[in-house]
Amino acid sequence: MSVSEDEPKDLIKLNHEKLSADEISALVVSPCCGAVSLFIGTTRNNFEGRKVIHLEYEAYEPMAEAEIKKICTDIRLKWPSVKHIAVHHRLGSVPISEASVMVAISSPHRAESLEAVQYGINALKATVPIWKKEVYEEESSWKENKECFWAKTLK
């Protein structure tokens, strides 16, 4: 592989299909990197003592993609050694134990990729217009991200 074939990439995907840890990890692997860090957010079966049946996600996709691109730019400014970044978010219905979001980042050393992945998921939750509905046995409820900046300004 030549150096030009391994130029840094930012890979963003929003879709209604099941997410794959193997797929997203393969997208960020690089021969010049010794670390790939991966965050996977999954649907849990409970919230505040209530049984969750599944989650439903909606997004304003053009704006969500633009915000994720901004996060990728911020990551590259904070951790210049980061090679590849991939962010995948599932939309629609997400069953219990399945992934709703994945962030994968490669870098020459683990510290940078681990820190960048944590920053990436936290920034995504705080700034990207993706909305989550928790569906319970008896009802459903749209959930506010506590980290979300616009939720704080509207109160």
List the helices and strands and how they pair.
Blueprint: E1 9-15, H1 21-28, E2 35-42, E3 46-47, E4 50-59, H2 61-78, E5 84-90, E6 92-95, E7 99-107, H3 110-127, E8 130-136, E9 140-143, H4 149-153
Helix pairs in contact: 2-3
Describe the structure.
This protein is an alpha+beta fold and 155 residues long. The protein contains four helices and nine strands; from the N terminus they run E-H-E-E-E-H-E-E-E-H-E-E-H. Strands 3, 4, 6, 8 and 9 form a five-stranded antiparallel β-sheet that branches. It has a four-stranded mixed β-sheet with strand order 1-5-7-2, sandwiched between helices. A hairpin with a 3-residue loop joins strand 8 and strand 9 (140-143). Helix 2 (61-78) packs antiparallel against helix 3. The longest helix is centred in the middle third of the chain and has 18 residues, at 61-78. It is elongated and about 50 Å long.
Mean pLDDT: 91
What structural class do helix, strand and pairing data support? Answer: alpha+beta
Main sheet makeup? 5 strands, antiparallel
- Residue ranges: pLDDT <50 for 5 or more in a row? none
Count of helices? 4
Assess the beta-strand content as a share of residues: 35-45%
Order of helices and strands: EHEEEHEEEHEEH
Helical fraction:
25-40%
Radius of gyration, whole Å: 16 Å
Instruction: Write down the overall geometry.
Output: elongated
Distance between the amino and carboxyl termini: 52 Å
Q: How many strand segments?
A: 9
